[in-house]
Amino acid sequence: MTQRFPLKPLCLLVLQALACHAYAAEPADAAADDSATAAAMAGPVQSVEITGRGQSRQVQNINKADLAEALPGTSPLKVLEKLPGVNFQSADPFGAYEWSTRFSIRGFNQNQLGFTLDGIPLGDMTYGNNNGLHISRAISSENIGSVSVSQGAGSLGTASSSNLGGTVQFFTLAPTNERGLTFAQTLGSDSTSRTFARVDTGLINGVFKAYISGTRQRTDKTKGEGKQDQDQLNSRFVFNFGDNSLTGFINYSDRKEVDYQDMSLEMVRRLGYNWDNYESDWARAVNAAKGVFSGGVNSLDDAYYSAGGLRKDTLSGLTLDLHLTSNVDLKTTIYHHDNEGQGHWYTPYVKTDASNPISLRTTEYTIGRDGVISDVTVELGDHTINAGVWGERNNHTASRNYYGVTGPADTMYYLSKPFATDWKQNFITTTSQYYLQDTLALMDGKLKLNAGFKALEVDIKATNLVGTRAAGSLTAKKNFLPQAGFNYAVTSDDEVFGSASKNMRAHQPGVTGPFSQTQAAYNAGVANLKPETSVNVDLGYRFKRENLQGSLAVYNARFDDRQLSVATCAGILGCPSTLVNVGKVDTKGVEAIAVWKFNREISWFNSATFNDSKYKSNYMDGTTLVAVSGKTVVDAPRQLFNTELSYEGGAWFARAGGKYTGKRYYTYLNDGGVPSFWLANLSAGYKMKNLGFVKDLSLQVNVTNLFDKQYISSIGTNGFQASDPNGTAQTLLTGAPRQVFITLNGKL
């Protein structure tokens, strides 16, 4: 009989210790298979294993059950916040409002992570993205089958030039073998209406299947005036021939989101959590622009008339998956991405004319990406050899323009013919990556050792078209970025794992990269400019029992040559920034996750993280020394804890959960921060199965922010500050109040 460790007491002790510490420390793989696809599209199913068994890295997988019971339209990034090490914040209940989205893993922020959809790079998914798009625009959430999170060391073959601290991989649901129409209608708070419909062809002649889906979402903001709307079309086909397949997709998104006003701590105290921009009170905005304030306002920047973002994207790809021999597989993907975007901001700092003190300032973007990814897997006895290449050419243009306005009007459309342009730049970025890895299975497969490396080169050619921002060429290159790991099965249900990797984040073109400086500042600093690098080390233990599974991991990361874009004026003014190498960051921490399945109906999920990310180097801001050594990294909470109780019995299902987020700093000197908070959510529903000609009919209720907590959600929306002792930095957003939504879905 195989010896197994008594785990329940250990799990309870570890999780309770981490949770209590958090509370006391701070007061106040490819597309899913057809059976899984059919079940997921029909409605919630039982959760499956979420710990990445067999991996040498810390990995968790979120399945369709978690995605299905989330509020429809919820960003899958928000669903990931339950996992250890993950900090997610947004000012809207869906987590899809891109200006506010903040996602980090173990203290590495969003632009230091890697994101892919079916292997295709999404860039770093930041708001002013230059090389990708947000997952909420890349595909409707209803068409995502699973998500894999690798904290620390992402796989060598991940197509990303920014994954210093981990990767997030999204996988699309396959078309179903059965022909049918799947639909879902959501109604709820703030006039929300979301309609989703998907038509599957079913399997035709045993070789071909496809789907096309449409999504229409309309919702008002939770405070102030304005809407956040999106239309999407997704399509996908699979053609099987023998053991091989050809898969293709085209996804389109048209998103419009009106912004919330960025707040400061002082503004929250003076104006309240519900304060927002002036829209639709044009007269008040004009008076404020002239220095005539009312209703507690005492600053030109307390509010603007309005702001918003527009994004149109088309993402397409074609994948050929070949089973060449019994031990050789080759997978090749080509992809294309077109993007057009504008960020609108009514500014009182630039006049339309002598009679109108306000103009409409825009930041305008275009992206045209083409790429190819190819991976080969060869089985040679006890060896599994993986090798691959990735190449991409990206043509990105960004500009800052001003348009005349005469009064209140709907300006949420793509503007042209500005009366002034501050700057305009074009960037041609060429990326090439190749990798090689060998995985060796020993001791009858109980011990797996893997070692390999990747080489990454990213070349940027920047051309200045208008204004005084920098032009030139810049290359980030590392020919040897190694990774090694092991996985040892102590028993059939217990394993230990470890990994170490070195990664590089390439220089970024666009509005906050090195070319956002003046030419003089760029010329003065380019010789000392180095790409950011990190070394991540993981060591952990995974276990699985009949009614219990989980993992415990410790980690350490060293981050070198951190690049800091130092703002030289208020965000709305858009002055050229200064890029400074601010040295090292050290991170260490422990993560625990456990899921108890008490019986067939009830399970209890818990995850806890203690993360310590500290700056290790001071830096100079001009001639001023900023003494940040020993300070906690901004937006890196030391404690995170998540608990969720799930019920799935017969026709009824329900989930209730709470998330604790520790104190977060938005200043490098840690004199400005926002307090810790708990947030609770609830989802529940009833599966009516068949009703007449409708199959798998279900009704679901989602309540976000269950106890209507007032809290600060996103921080750093207008950048982070060196210091803010008076709490006046406008770089915070308040969280959404309680929201209630009802969804009816089924199949025809």
From TrEMBL:
Annotated GO MF terms: siderophore uptake transmembrane transporter activity
TonB-dependent receptor-like beta-barrel domain sequence ranges: 267-706
CDD domains, per database record: ligand_gated_channel
GO cellular component: cell outer membrane
Membrane topology: Multi-pass membrane protein
Boundaries of every TonB-dependent receptor plug domain copy: 56-167
Protein name: TonB-dependent receptor
Provenance organism: Duganella rivi
Lineage, top ranks: Bacteria, Pseudomonadati, Pseudomonadota, Betaproteobacteria, Burkholderiales
